[in-house]
Specification:
66 residues, alpha+beta, three-stranded antiparallel sheet, 1 helix, elongated
Length: 66
């Protein structure tokens, strides 16, 4: 399993700091917190692609600054 979603709610994303709907999630590589829908799917996609290619992605994707 790549991630566990604890609950869906409204909050502030730990990556982009946007406030809105999202999920409280814990990823298998240690990242956890509230994520907007876009950043949650980005984290899943990056991690899934790394596992498919056989890479060991130990760090989450870089945080957006824009």
């Amino acid at each position: 399993m790549l991630a566990t979603i604890e609950k869906c709610e409204t909050g502030t994303c730990v990556w982009c700091k946007a406030r809105g709907e999202g999920v409280l999630a814990k990823f298998d590589f240690g990242l956890q917190g509230f994520f907007c829908k876009k950043d949650f799917w980005t984290a899943l996609k990056v991690r899934f692609e790394a596992k498919e290619e056989g890479d060991v992605a130990e760090t989450p994707p870089a945080r957006r600054t824009a």
